[in-house]
Structures are given as C-alpha cells and as structure tokens.
Amino acid sequence: MSFDPGRININIGSETKIERILIVRLSAMGDVIHTLPAAQAIRDAFPQAHIGWLIEERWAELLCAPGSPGRGGRSSRRPLVDEVHTVNLKEWGKSLFSLSTLQRVATIWNDVRDARYDVAVDLQGAIRSAALARWSGARVVYGAAEPRESPASLFYTRKVVAHGRHVIEQNVSVAAGLVKRQVKVPCAQFPSDAAAEARIEQRLAEFGIRQYAILNPGAGWGAKRWPAERYGEVARGLAELGLQGILNYGPGEDELARAAEAASGGAARAMKSSLTELIALTRRARLFVGGDTGPLHLAAALRVPVVGIYGPTDPARNGPYGTRSVVLRSVESVTSHARRAAADEGMLGIGSGAVVAAAQELVESDLRG
User: Fold this and answer.
1) Which of 35, 211, 303, 360 could form a disulfide with 25 if both were Cys (CB 3.0 to 4.6 A apart)?
2) 248 and 303 in contact (C-beta within 8 Å)?
3) Does the predicted model carry a pTM greater than 0.85?
C-alpha cells in the first residue's frame, strides 16, 4: 500500500494582513513529521511571514539542528521556520512551583507573546495545545472543527472542517484556512547538519557499511511492536539481497535492539543515534522496515522505500505517505489507539518471510527504476 500526495482546496478568512504565524504541534516524533507538510503549505503561501513553532524540546531537532540559533534567518540548519519555541511540559509538571521552573516558563512565554503573532494554528487538537495557541496572544486561532479532544475547539476562533483520509491531508486541510488557492501537499523539509552528516559517514565507513536497510523494532507501545527476534530474521533475508541491516533504537529500547541483533546472526548491527543523526542516517538508507512509529514516518518523508508492519493502527490514516511502500496488516487486527502493552495478535501472524518478500519487491522495483 502506498499514498500519493493529493491536492487541497484552501480559503482565506477575513484577515487582510498576516505577517506573523505560530504553529502549535508539541509532540510526538511521527505527529510532528505529519505536520511538516501543513507548515510547508503555510510557508509557501506566506514566504515573507515570520513563522514560529511551539514544540516539545525533545523534538526540536526536527525543525532546527543542535547548536543553531532558535530564531533568525532561515538556513539549511533551520529551513522551515523563523523561530522555534521549546517547552518541556512533562519535566515542568514534576516541579511546577519551583523557582527555576517558573522562571523557565516565564521566559518561554514572554518570548512567545513578544513575537506578537497575528495567527496561531493548532495542529495537535489537544486541550493543552489549543490553550497554548490561545494564550500566545494571537488574535486569531485556527483549529479543526472536530479536534482529537473535543473541548479543544472552545479555544479556537476559526474552526476548519478537516478532510482527507490520511492525517497529513487532514493537517494540510486545517492549515488551509490561511491561504487561498489550490495547492499540492508539499514535501517536508528537515534540517541538515554538516557535523551529524560527517559523523554518520564516519561510522558507516568504520563498520564497512555501504548499502543498508534500517530496521526499527521499537514503537510507542507494545501492541504496535512486532517481535524483535523477527527483525533479526528479516536482517538475514536482507543480507541475501545485498543489504546490511542497521537496527535503530531509542531510549529504553536497548533490550529490543540486543534481541534483534542476536537473532540476526551478524546480519544486523545496532546503532543508537541522536535525532539529527537519525535524519542523516535515514537519508542514505535504501530501505526502512518497521511499525507505525516516528522513524518510519521520517523515512517516508525522506522518500525512502518503506515496509510497514501494522497492527492496531490504520495504515490508511497513519501509513507511510508519499513514498513507495508495502504495508503488511492482518485482517484480524482491529483499529485502536489504546496504548495496550500486550502484542497485537494480528501482528503476530505476520511472518518474517512476508516482510522479506515485501522488501525484495521494493528493492527490485528500485533497481528497475
């Protein structure tokens, strides 16, 4: 299954002059990536506007390379937005009334309000994101007419009926309240960091890796995870196609990576990286294999061919978008976003042979051009 970008009709509201726009999408990795095309559509419509983004600190590298100024002229290190406002709501919540937390909150919020945004666009649809958009001081706040958390709509002054099946299309249709023309859903832009690119090149050279596939055994919760050992089995099959397996893993996923690496019999190597390094690593990959998780959506956004292994989430809404892909999902899997720890029974019915066959299909089609 693959998705091609569609075209979205979008209309302007009553505002006659929009010079400063705030995008609110706090987290998580895949959701931020799904928001980037909507942000690009806004950028294309308002090329001279000052665009800011309110985001959780953990995911800011999707917008701005480490060490780069959080505001100022755009460059390859911060290609899309003029200003990045970071929050750390989870950590702040642990010590909400401490002086250091209050000072940090005040500093961030003063920066947001001092930016004097004309418009805020909430592309998360949660109560907290909608409230932050409203409290930004923007005179107009856009959001979906039917947001993920219904009370969020109370904070919007402009409610847009979202349409499109895939979440990327839905995000673009919400952002569409700002512009007046038919546009093609644009490609996402990611920061490029020369130091991270060099580190990845050096690491690959040290390991003697040239052609490789990224395998990602982790996922946000247990029901979305395919057994780690099967990723090792897939790596052995990919080796026969001439692809070394690189196992990507994040915080708390060390055990998954070790299990997959052991099962690979030397066909896969675990490699931990920062988010900026993962962008550099993914750019060079021939293939990505994994479940519904942020690194998969990064690969799709970078137009890397994807084998998606899906269970409780609907690939029509959350599948790899805009790249060549094969999505495997059992008819026994039932769509649910409940964060269950137990493995999805339908997912367990997907064998490693089916995944290797899907990978071979993509690799061979790539060779055919």
Assistant:
1) 35
2) no
3) yes
Distances from the Cα of 49 to the Cα of 82, 100, 176, angstroms = 9, 33, 16
Q: Rounded to whole angstroms, how far apart are CA atoms 324 and 304?
A: 7
| Long-range Cβ contacts of 108-114 (<8 Å, 24+ apart) | 109/135, 111/85, 112/22, 112/52, 112/54, 112/85, 112/136, 112/137, 113/137
- Give the up-direction half-sphere exposure of residue 280: CA atoms within 13 A in the CB hemisphere: 23
As given in the structure block, the two tokens for residue 130 are 């909608």
DSSP bridge partners of 55: 86
CA dihedral (85, 198, 228, 333) positive or negative: positive
Secondary structure of residue 115 in the 3-state scheme: coil
Asked if 104 and 125 touch (Cβ cutoff 8 Å), the reply is no
What is the bridge-based pairing of β-strands 181-184 and 7-10?
A: antiparallel
Q: At what angle do helices 228-239 and 352-368 cross, to 10 degrees?
A: 40
- The number of CA neighbours under 13 Å toward the Cβ of 301 is 29
- Residue written as token pair 């001439």: 242
Residue 358 tokens, joined? 């899907």
Q: d(Cα 13, Cα 177) in Å, to the nearest integer?
A: 7
Give me the sign of the Cα torsion angle 217, 215, 226, 347: positive
Angle of CA points 339, 344, 348, to nearest 5°: 150
Cβ–Cβ < 8 Å for 308, 320: yes
**What confidence tens digit (pLDDT) does each residue in 195-245 have?**
999 999 999 999 999 999 999 999 999 999 999 999 999 999 999 999 999
Spell out the domains of the chain, with CATH numbers in brackets.
7-184 (3.40.50.2000), 194-368 (3.40.50.2000)
